[in-house]
């Protein structure tokens, strides 16, 4: 059987880090996707091709005369990371549906953005692989999404050591989601008016796992950090109400507050301070680091579509890459 799976990437609007400590968060899928083409193969071999995966290139050697590339060194760690998520997802899924069984798959993976920039590529690979495994073993494309989300979250937890359900649940179900990590539950929330965001990223220097550990360590040491986590939880609850009401001015103000609180947690880089301040000076209603921090993804709320284009050119001059000017609606599809 052959499978084609489209897995959206995601952006965090509110509540990153605090969600690891039991607070709610708001995230959304994006209209950009990781795609997985796969088929069952005989035996228990796993063949993975990384066609068109945009990898951070470590070095490149050029023949000056013919301007021919003679050597490209890609970041092996990135490939190893993907392999780890794929094999872990398959193990978890097979232990759930056919304990002890291991099946062969040929998997071709394509990603429009590099891994580890805070847009959920790891979660997308986990969700896509779990979807593939369940569809293959249960011989149906009508896969129970609650099971996909649950097993994908277990994959992230096993690989990273700690992970909230935010990325995997948002990517599984799609659209803007209010995540309650205690249940876990991913409630769909919708604004009555269109919100114009720009979403981009800069190079990220630390992994999500590292940043989650840094915040955890500070929380263990400093009582004041608990108040920051509580404050982020409060921002999320307020933001949910203003999104539902379509009050974009208030949503923007809360994005700015959330950015300040992320800074207090110690995960905002100098480069992101510059980008966020420039976006605000260019009239953004709100702008913040998005995801684990340490560079990586950011999100800004524009006044309208035209203004989003202006903000896009502002961040491009600062060397950032813009990946979307709107949020997505769909979750994982097979
Ligand atoms: C993940 O995109 C962002 C963090 O909140 C970690 C998590 O939710 O697992 C920092």
Characterization of this structure:
- This protein is of the alpha+beta class and 334 residues long.
- It has 2 domains: 187 residues, Ribosomal Protein S5, domain 2, CATH 3.30.230.10; 129 residues, Alpha-Beta Plaits (2-Layer Sandwich).
- The chain has 9 helices and 12 strands.
- Strands 1, 2, 3, 6, 7 and 8 form a 6-stranded mixed β-sheet that branches.
- Strand 7 and strand 8 form a beta hairpin.
- Helix 6 runs antiparallel to helix 7.
- The model has no long low-confidence stretch (mean pLDDT 93).
- Bound molecules: (R)-mevalonate.
Ordered list of secondary-structure elements with their pairings:
Layout (H helix, E strand, L loop, with lengths): L1 E13 L10 E17 L4 E4 L7 E7 L4 E7 L1 H22 L6 E7 L10 H18 L6 H16 L5 H8 L2 E5 L4 E4 L7 E9 L3 H14 L1 H23 L2 H18 L4 H12 L4 E4 L5 E8 L2 H13 L3 E4 L10
Parallel strand pairs: 3-6
Antiparallel strand pairs: 1-2, 2-6, 2-7, 4-5, 7-8, 9-11, 9-12, 10-11
Helix pairs in contact: 1-2, 1-3, 2-3, 2-4, 3-4, 5-6, 6-7
Bound molecules: (R)-mevalonate.
(R)-mevalonate (MEV) binds next to helix 4 and helix 5.
Enzyme class: transferase
Protein name: Mevalonate kinase
InterPro entries: GHMP_kinase_C_dom, GHMP_kinase_C_sf, GHMP_kinase_N_dom, Mev_gal_kin, Mevalonate_kinase_arc, Ribosomal_Su5_D2-typ_SF, Ribsml_uS5_D2-typ_fold_subgr
């Amino acid at each position: 059987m052959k499978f084609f799976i489209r897995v959206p990437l995601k952006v965090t609007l509110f509540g990153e880090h605090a969600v690891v400590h039991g607070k709610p968060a708001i995230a959304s899928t994006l209209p950009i996707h990781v795609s997985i083409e796969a088929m069952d193969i005989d035996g228990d071999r796993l063949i993975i091709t990384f066609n068109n995966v945009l990898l951070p290139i470590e070095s490149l050697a050029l023949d000056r005369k013919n301007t021919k590339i003679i050597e490209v060194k890609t970041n092996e760690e990135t490939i190893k990371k993907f392999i780890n998520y794929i094999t872990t997802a398959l193990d978890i899924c097979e232990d759930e549906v056919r304990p002890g069984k291991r099946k062969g798959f040929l998997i071709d993976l394509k990603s429009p953005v590099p891994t580890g920039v805070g847009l959920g590529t790891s979660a997308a690979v986990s969700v896509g692989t779990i979807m593939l495994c369940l569809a293959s073993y249960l011989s149906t494309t009508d896969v129970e999404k609650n099971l996909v989300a649950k097993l994908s979250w277990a994959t992230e937890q096993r690989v990273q050591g700690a992970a909230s359900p935010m990325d995997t649940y948002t990517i599984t179900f799609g659209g803007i989601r209010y995540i309650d990590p205690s249940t876990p539950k991913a409630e769909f929330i919708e604004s009555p008016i269109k919100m114009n965001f720009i979403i981009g990223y800069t190079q990220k220097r630390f992994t999500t796992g590292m940043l989650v550990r840094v915040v955890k360590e500070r929380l263990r040491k400093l009582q004041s950090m608990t108040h920051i986590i509580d404050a982020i939880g409060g921002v999320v609850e307020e933001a949910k109400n203003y999104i539902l009401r379509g009050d974009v001015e208030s949503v923007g103000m809360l994005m700015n507050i959330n950015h300040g609180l992320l800074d207090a947690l110690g995960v905002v880089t100098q480069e992101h301070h510059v980008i966020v301040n420039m976006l605000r000076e260019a009239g953004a209603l709100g702008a913040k680091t998005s995801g684990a921090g340490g560079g990586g993804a950011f999100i800004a709320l524009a006044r309208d579509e035209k203004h989003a284009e202006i903000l896009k050119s502002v961040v491009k001059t600062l060397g950032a890459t813009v990946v979307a000017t709107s949020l997505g609606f769909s979750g994982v599809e097979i």
